[in-house]
Automatic annotation (TrEMBL):
Entry keyword set: ATP-binding, Nucleotide-binding, Transport
Keyword ATP-binding in record: yes
GO cellular component, one term: membrane protein complex
Keyword Hydrolase: no
PANTHER family registered for this protein in UniProt: ALPHA-D-RIBOSE 1-METHYLPHOSPHONATE 5-TRIPHOSPHATE SYNTHASE SUBUNIT PHNL, LIPOPROTEIN-RELEASING SYSTEM ATP-BINDING PROTEIN LOLD
Name this polypeptide is given: ABC transporter ATP-binding protein
SMART domains the record matches: AAA
Family statement: Belongs to the ABC transporter superfamily.
Amino acid sequence: MALLEVRHLKKTYTNRFGTNQVEALKDVTFSMEEGEYTAVMGESGSGKTTLLNLLASFDRPTSGDIILNGLPFRKIQDKDLAVYRRKNLGFVFQDFNLLDTLSVRDNIFLPLVLAGEKTEEMKKRLSPLVKVLRISDLLDKFPYEISGGQKQRTAIARALITEPKLILADEPTGALDSRASYELLHMFEQINQAGQTILMVTHSTTAASHAKRVLFIKDGTVYHQIYRGDKSRDEMFRKISETLTVMASGGKEYA
Ligand SMILES: Nc1ncnc2c1ncn2[C@@H]1O[C@H](COP(=O)(O)OP(=O)(O)OP(=O)(O)O)[C@@H](O)[C@H]1O
């Protein structure tokens, strides 16, 4: 059984008066096995954020299904969604979303505090994580005292500490310089090699070339996908660039 199944997902936004409709997702179907690392790419307005919001259970689809670990989101009541999300999903955003009033340590602990986890368990999970992410020395600092790359690594620790089934990353390198981006992508690869399933939305061909698979969204549907297989990263980068060029020029080739 796949870890994540997305079936015929459709999302139509309607304005308040019901006079204007935008079909952001028309019919998106794909699945992800446990341990996969998938990047989602597509032009601006193609529906990537919409897809991520639905996968994050921040919004409900117009029709279609999202099934994580055998449980359709449809069956989860609105009042239970926040707890479900906290237990099963980890989030890494472009702008880190750390709280400036909390130390690095407390930012990382936050989802476990909200879940009522015991202090002992929180500490046990923290130490291996911060070692891998190289933020052990920063735990008593505050977000405004650390660099962008360090903030993003803190955000990754916060996402991983709940041991989520799936990490959803929205443009995680978007606010980082090239060195910090490289470090983050390297870290994602390490985390993935350790078994973590990751889905990352990105505009960056470099970022996507680190993933094991790239899904291309165009006009609200899955237009094409590339598997890394035994391709080198350079080769993967070239394939992604070619696909983006074909897509931008009307995209008949794969349609
Ligand atoms: N809340 C909303 N209400 C109405 N239309 C929306 C809403 N959110 C998105 N849309 C429309 O749905 C379509 C898909 O938007 P979406 O934000 O998912 O694209 P995207 O691929 O993430 O774009 P970008 O790369 O620029 O972030 C666009 O036409 C957008 O204008």
